[in-house]
Amino acid sequence: MKIDKNNAVRASRMLLAFVGMLIISGSCKKDFLDQKTLSVLGESAIFSDSTYALQFVNNRYVNATYSWEPNRFSAVGGLESACDEAEPAPSVTDYHSLISSGAANPSNTHKVLYNTTYAQVRAVNIFLKNLNIVPVTAATKKVWEGQVRFMRAWYLAAMIKHYGGIQLVGNTVFEEQDEINLPRSTYEESVNYVVSECDAVASLLPVSYVNAIDYGRATKGAALALKARVLLYAASPLTNDNRTDDPGHLVSYGNADPNRWKKAADAAQAVIDMNYYSLYRASAPAFYQNFLVGLTAPNLEHIFAFMPPTTTPNNMYRETIMNPPSRGTRYTATISCFPLQEMVDAFGMANGLPISDPASGYPGIGDNMYLNRDPRLAQSVSYNGALRAFSGITGDQPVRTYTGALPAGSQGNPNLSSAQLDGIYKSNATRTGYYCYKMLSNNVINGGAELNRPRVLIRYAEVLLNAAEAVNETSGPTAQVYTWLRDIRSRAGITAGTGATFGIKNGLLKDEMREVIRNERRVELAYEEHRFWDVRRWKIAPQTENKEMHGLEITRAENGVFSYRLIVVSKHVFRENMYFWPIPQSEITKSPALKQNPGY
């Protein structure tokens, strides 16, 4: 049975589309291309020309951000809207809504990652098959091979996060006429393959690139950091279990092995020991600015980042779908990704203490609830009173998310009357009382210029958090664990306090430090495609996801007094089978040897 025909056709068409793009853009090769037609132009014509071969390498990066994007499922929906970080607009119902409502199944599951991954894997394998005829130096071939193999590992690592054990095809290039009925490899085999590829390409890739045009290409550090991330996930409680519903070990190891934490710790340490990366501190506020710089000069916190072409027509897409309507951009879209109160409450105080600590100084819900908070809150979330740029006015102005009476002088004043656009319950406005601000430029607003910026996929702060978690699970809260966490908090602007603890008490037990690390990941890595997976690999999703999610309704009275009320925004559902995604039924129909995930 030719069960993989569609994927083969799709990848073949991708190759032809690539050639077509070269015909359009490759004017320097016009005479050569004029002698050819798509019906006869073959692989040898592409790979025997170094320009075309490099373009083929470049095209392996085009889907790198897919799983990370805030508009992954629709124009305005991503994984942050499928967990306890944010809520989508009520008018947006796509796969993130199916996830949070517990309605995802093999027939309606999102298939783009599945299809994209194997199209990219096939393209990588085509390149490797033809590498020997590419007319470049041996040194260049080595780096190009490292790049495409890294990207293959990158896509497969994303598949493992979603599905567990996957179909491993190695370097094989399947053709349309081939009968393909590959079973899934075990979870362990899949992890080992990606890890071995990361090890192999780390020896092929440079630490850095000299020219700015090469920023964003895979490096040795990216390979080692991806390995560390994969091993951290593999060491976590979710897969370290002997599941009776997983006899083939497709989504688990079948046992618990504490040594897996040691492997994860060693892998993260290998990145740290490169002594190349560091937390960004060059401009203030450093945590906020970190996401906006790195296109024209190295940002040594960015280990792997996608660099959009400067010709991209809309480099304000995040602002378009996240800014309050009063700020907006020159584009229009349904605004979505509204932070939940649960996410806001995860940010502690500027002294580093959680708001639940009586010594923190948190006054409770009310007019002063956002004062003296962890600076990362204001740099990640736009709340009522948060200061943001406003078109046509010098100086930042308050965001107004309240409902109720407008202040005096509002009529004809777009700034003072902005609650009519931004207030909770207004059309195309927040449904939680908050807007997402993480990775947004304050200057990209109505009438503002676009801002090209990196899309940061792995950064050094994550590596430090990965190392802290793995070492704590291996050896408890060592002095080095404290150092890593306090370094992150110091950069964030948390005050050092007495003894320079940055709010992390000395003498914590392993379980206590585990909670500190988990919350630090939650706030430091918010809206970067981590929380959705973290609560799953930690097996705490039944507590964090299977419950009502909240927002904050603020009402302004005629006398200017505000009242506050927690509101239920939605009820999320989580069941045991939802730790991993269902394999698309269409793939199982094509490949009967492909086993479905437990519970579907």
From TrEMBL:
Keywords: Cell outer membrane, Membrane, Signal. It is found in: Cell outer membrane. InterPro entries: SusD-like_N, SusD_RagB_dom, TPR-like_helical_dom_sf. Residues 311-600 form the RagB/SusD domain. Residues 107-232 form the SusD-like N-terminal domain. Its main location: membrane. The keyword Membrane applies. GO terms for cellular component: cell outer membrane. Belongs to the SusD family. This is RagB/SusD family nutrient uptake outer membrane protein. It comes from Hufsiella ginkgonis.
